[in-house]
């Protein structure tokens, strides 16, 4: 899908780049477990685990490739 009125950005090396479409920057998914202990975890507990995963992503070898990352737990 083409981007409508793409905004251009010029880097210090005078290379013009356009924004990445949202379809390439968002990942959604569902996690399910049959482990009785994990199955009863609250959303707050899952959010704590997701926050740790985001921190590890930022510190890992691909961390510099992300402008930002968020993960949200919710709904059962």
Main features:
76 residues; alpha+beta; 2 helices; 28% helix; 8% strand; elongated
Please tell me about this protein's structure.
- The structure is a single chain.
- With 76 residues, the chain is of the alpha+beta class.
- The protein has 2 helices and 2 strands.
- Strands 1-2 form a two-stranded antiparallel sheet.
- Strand 1 (8-10) and strand 2 (16-18) form a beta hairpin.
- It is elongated and about 55 Å long.
Separation of the first and last Cα atoms: 33 Å
Which class of secondary structure composition applies to the elements? alpha+beta
Instruction: Provide the β-strand percentage band.
Output: 5-15%
Task: Please tally the helical runs, counting DSSP H or I stretches of 4 or more residues.
Answer: 2
Which of globular, elongated, flat, extended, rod-shaped describes the shape?
Answer: elongated
Any chance you could write out the topology, listing elements then pairs?
Layout: E1 8-10, E2 16-18, H1 36-39, H2 43-59
Antiparallel strand pairs: 1-2
Short summary of the structure?
With 76 residues, the chain is α+β, with helices and mostly antiparallel strands. Helix content is 28%, strand content 8%.
């Amino acid at each position: 899908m083409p981007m409508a009125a793409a905004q251009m950005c010029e880097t210090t090396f005078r290379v013009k780049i356009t924004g990445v479409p949202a379809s390439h920057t968002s990942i959604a998914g569902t996690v399910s477990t049959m482990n009785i202990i994990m199955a009863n975890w609250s959303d707050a507990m899952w959010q704590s685990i997701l926050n740790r995963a985001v921190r590890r992503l930022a510190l890992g070898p691909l961390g510099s490739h992300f402008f930002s990352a968020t993960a949200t737990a919710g709904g059962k």
